[in-house]
């Protein structure tokens, strides 16, 4: 490397955002409060599902392999509902981003919510931006150590509460709370709390904006969702430039509205200057808008020198008339249509979700068994998935195989061809049976016959079927 | 190699010196904490070398102070499995096979034990699905040489078939009617026609009548009237669609002329009673049990 090539690594510039009041700050606090209330209280909502299922509205039950969400109960083999939910969430994110930029990042992302909380704590303990900068530069003293220790202690406390709430989504909340208080909680609960405490402390306390800038992939591909008519936090250069400090006695002729007070930089949680234009680091939180509005009020100029604005507007202002921003445009129509499509398919499949399912696998070793009288027997592994809340009794029949006799392995065959074999499956569980199907020599037409197993609930209306192939010599 | 590293006028940053069609790349330095994470990884690996097996040496490797090995972990997990299974298998020891079969929990356990023991000890001859091969019986069907009840299967397992080391072994021998000149080739041909007729293949009526006479004189003692077989002496059922040594007429002639006899080891000296009982339950559950 040559001498003038610059450093290989750069030290971190610590960001100390200044406290600010205004519309967007208020909105951020409201969103933060709402999200935290949902996060902490959701596991405590009860939902009656009868005696055989969990009574928690939202529960991810790993040992029993069930996921409960209010009226929805999902089995592991229905994990595609979760995939659908994630696809829907991704499309929702794209949709909102194409309209309003990265407001997910600025207002609702957990990284932002917890970082806001941590900065607020920092501000309580160490004071606002200038006081914090002074404290950082001050030599170590008992007072500095005390303040720093208190701050980190509070941060760890928030981390513990964060992890402590997380685990309630995975176990019955009141039971687990009791176990935690009496020290009887399982080890995995404690390690999860420890992990989330560490993660919260490191991400929201130490890394903060570095998570958004260096770790989060979303910051990198946001540009794919933006277009000329996306509202992004932008500085109106046409109105602000040329910038410069302004004395009360001076007029506003021949200069811009920007008084170069750098308040927008001071409040920025990612430490950028929005006047440099759109940047990778900007999370669209709008705090610079609040800061600038305050200053504009003071100097008596109109608000929103920095505002949520579109690139189309910005270039129009540079010369020519403003055109109204189109909310409905190919990009937003595409995202909205896809969302409606995925949501509709998911809703329909949830509504039509059967509480009875049948799986059949033909045994392949041996494919068939020849009996002494020339009859041919096949064995099938049969699983009855009873997703209802009560024990089920079912009749099993086979279609497309005349003369076939069904029997459950281990039990005596009924000897009758058309009588359904009675099977049971306990509530909310899978019952497994090995079914033997015997076809007399004379009745078997071909070496492989397409058949269907059918289970019908006795005294109910549930019905499920599964295709199978009967093989002979 | 970068050649023209210079300062970019607009951003004030240095370039990497790479240039493509007039587009130059800014050199954006990595955050320093990234470097620290790299150092932390190096420190972690040093700790790992001390604790765990790491470096190959001539004739061995550094074993680490914890003494861990994946093989050791495997052996420990096998031992844990054995212990767990032993405590579970207690419920199988006192129960009769019929009792096990009527209790779903014990049946599941016995079938699991039987299935794994079968794969280890029996599949070599009877096949992995117990489907058998020529000369080795299929255990799925309803044809049994020595009986298909639980008890009969257990006895066969314990003492084997024609396993002379075991005094209680199941033993029987079909005379070599042709090789020892007990029957003439013509008589053997006739009796083969008769045996084929028991399976529904109708041949020459005169030959069958002569064959029936030969059969009554020489074969009925073991294979019984109508060739239904006798599990007491391991005489196979001849009136059957299932055959151990082939179902063609030439197969019958070959077997009457110079019979082949299968051998099965006695397992009581190699497998414990619970495993043998589980094997019997498993084989019985395949669908052919009597």
**CATH class category label of the domain at 72-168 and 264-285 in chain B:** Mainly Alpha
Q: What is the count of β-strands of chain A?
A: 15
In helices, the fraction of residues of chain B equals 40-55%
Note the gap between the termini of chain A. Answer: 77 Å
Classify the beta-strand content of chain A into a percent band. Answer: 15-25%
Q: For this structure, what is the CATH homologous superfamily of the domain at 72-168 and 264-285 in chain B? A: Cytochrome c-like domain
Largest sheet of chain B: 2 strands, antiparallel
Shape of chain B: elongated
Q: Based on the structure given, which CATH architecture of the domain at 72-168 and 264-285 in chain B is correct?
A: Orthogonal Bundle
The total count of strands of chain B amounts to 5
Give a verbal description of the structure.
- The complex is a heterodimer of chains A (473) and B (290).
- Chain A is of the alpha+beta class and 473 residues long.
- Chain A has two domains: 12-353, no CATH class; 356-471, Immunoglobulins (Immunoglobulin-like, Sandwich).
- Chain A has 15 helices and 15 strands.
- Chain A has helices at residues 23-41, 80-100, 103-108, 110-126, 129-137, 142-166, 173-181, 187-207, 209-215, 218-221, 237-240, 263-267, 287-299, 311-317, 330-351; strands at 9-10, 58-61, 66-69, 72-74, 232-235, 306-309, 356-362, 369-370, 376-386, 392-399, 405-408, 421-425, 429-439, 448-457, 463-471.
- In chain A, strands 7, 8, 9, 11 and 13 form a five-stranded antiparallel beta sheet that branches.
- In chain A, a hairpin with a 5-residue loop joins strand 8 and strand 9 (376-386).
- The longest helix of chain A has 25 residues, at 142-166.
- With 290 residues, chain B is mainly alpha-helical.
- Among the domains of chain B are: 72-168 and 264-285, Cytochrome Bc1 Complex, Chain D, domain 2 (Orthogonal Bundle); 185-257, Orthogonal Bundle (Cytochrome Bc1 Complex, Chain D, domain 2), CATH 1.10.760.
- Helix content of chain B is 47%, strand content 6%.
- Chain B is built from eleven helices and five strands.
- Chain B has helices spanning 32-51, 70-93, 97-102, 104-121, 123-126, 150-159, 185-198, 205-218, 220-223, 249-257, 273-285, and strands at 15-20, 23-26, 30-31, 56-57, 60-61.
- In chain B, helix 4 packs across helix 11.
- The longest helix of chain B has 24 residues, at 70-93.
- Chain B is elongated, with a radius of gyration of 36 Å.
- The N and C termini of chain B lie far apart (83 Å).
- The interface between A and B is medium-sized, with 29 and 36 residues.
- Strand 1 of chain A pairs parallel with strand 3 of chain B, so a sheet runs across the interface.
């Amino acid at each position: 490397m040559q001498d003038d090539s610059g450093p290989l690594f750069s030290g971190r510039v610590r960001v100390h955002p200044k406290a600010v009041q205004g519309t967007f700050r208020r909105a951020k606090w409201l969103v933060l409060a709402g999200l935290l209330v949902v996060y902490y209280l959701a596991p405590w909502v009860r939902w009656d599902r009868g005696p055989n299922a969990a009574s928690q509205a939202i529960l991810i039950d790993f040992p029993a392999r069930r996921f409960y969400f209010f009226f929805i109960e999902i089995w592991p083999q229905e994990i595609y509902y979760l995939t659908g939910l994630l696809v829907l969430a991704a499309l929702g994110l794209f949709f909102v981003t194409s309209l309003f930029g990265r407001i997910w990042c600025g207002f609702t992302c957990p990284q932002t919510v917890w970082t806001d909380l941590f900065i607020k704590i920092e501000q309580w303990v160490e004071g606002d931006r200038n006081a914090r900068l002074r404290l950082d530069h001050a030599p170590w003293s008992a007072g500095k150590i005390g303040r720093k220790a208190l701050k980190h202690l509070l941060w760890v406390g928030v981390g513990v509460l964060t992890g402590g709430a997380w685990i309630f989504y995975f176990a019955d909340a009141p039971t687990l709370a009791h176990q935690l208080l009496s020290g009887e909680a399982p080890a995995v609960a404690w390690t999860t709390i420890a992990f989330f405490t560490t993660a919260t402390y490191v991400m929201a306390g130490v890394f903060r904006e570095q998570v958004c800038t260096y770790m989060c992939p979303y910051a990198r591909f946001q540009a794919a969702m933006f277009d000329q008519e996306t509202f992004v936090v932008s500085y109106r250069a046409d109105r602000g430039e040329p910038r410069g400090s302004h004395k009360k006695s001076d007029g506003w002729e021949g200069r811009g509205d920007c008084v170069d007070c750098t308040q927008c930089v001071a409040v920025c949680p990612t430490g950028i200057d929005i006047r440099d234009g759109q940047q990778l680091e900007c999370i669209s939180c709008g705090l610079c808008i609040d800061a600038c509005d305050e200053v504009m009020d003071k100097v008596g100029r109109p608000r929103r020198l920095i505002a949520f604005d579109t690139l189309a507007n910005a270039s129009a202002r540079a010369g020519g008339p403003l055109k109204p921003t189109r909310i409905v445009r190919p990009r937003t129509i595409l995202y909205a249509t896809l969302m409606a499509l995925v949501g509709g398919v998911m809703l329909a499949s949830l509504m039509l979700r059967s509480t009875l399912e049948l799986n059949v696998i033909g045994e392949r070793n041996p494919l068939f068994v020849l009996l002494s009288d020339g009859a041919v027997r096949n064995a099938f592994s049969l699983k009855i998935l009873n997703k209802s809340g009560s024990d089920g009794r079912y009749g099993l029949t086979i279609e497309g195989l005349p003369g076939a006799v069904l029997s459950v392995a281990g039990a005596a065959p009924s000897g009758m061809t058309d009588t359904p074999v009675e099977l049971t499956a306990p509530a909310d569980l899978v019952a497994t049976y090995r079914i033997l199907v015997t076809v007399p020599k004379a009745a078997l037409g071909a070496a492989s016959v397409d058949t269907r197993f059918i289970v019908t609930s006795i005294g109910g209306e549930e019905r499920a079927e599964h295709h199978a192939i009967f093989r002979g010599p | 190699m970068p050649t023209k590293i210079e300062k970019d006028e607009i951003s004030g940053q240095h370039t990497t010196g790479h240039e493509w069609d007039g587009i130059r790349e800014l050199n954006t330095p990595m955050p320093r904490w990234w470097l620290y994470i790299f150092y932390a990884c190096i420190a972690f690996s040093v700790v790992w070398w001390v604790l765990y097996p790491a470096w190959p040496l001539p004739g061995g490797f550094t074993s680490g102070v914890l003494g861990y090995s994946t093989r050791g972990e495997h052996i420990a997990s096998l031992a844990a499995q054995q212990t767990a299974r032993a405590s579970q298998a207690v419920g199988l020891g006192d129960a009769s096979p019929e009792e096990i079969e009527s209790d779903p929990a014990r049946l599941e356990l016995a079938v699991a034990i039987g299935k794994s023991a079968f794969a280890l000890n029996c599949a070599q001859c009877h096949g992995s699905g117990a489907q058998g091969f020529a000369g080795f019986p299929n255990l799925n069907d309803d044809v049994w040489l020595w009986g298909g009840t639980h008890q009969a299967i257990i006895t066969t397992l314990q003492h084997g078939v024609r396993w002379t080391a075991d005094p209680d072994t199941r033993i029987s021998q079909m005379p070599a009617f042709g090789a020892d000149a007990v029957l003439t080739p013509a008589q053997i041909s006739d009796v083969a026609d008769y045996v084929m007729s028991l399976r529904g293949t109708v041949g020459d009526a005169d030959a069958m009548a002569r064959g029936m006479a030969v059969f009554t004189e020489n074969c009925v003692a073991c294979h019984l009237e109508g060739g239904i077989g006798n599990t007491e002496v391991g005489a196979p059922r001849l009136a059957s669609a299932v055959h151990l040594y082939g179902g063609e007429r030439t197969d019958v002639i070959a077997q009457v002329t110079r019979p082949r006899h299968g051998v099965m080891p006695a397992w009581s000296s190699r497998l414990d009673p619970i495993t043998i009982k589980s094997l019997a339950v498993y084989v019985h559950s395949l669908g052919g049990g009597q």
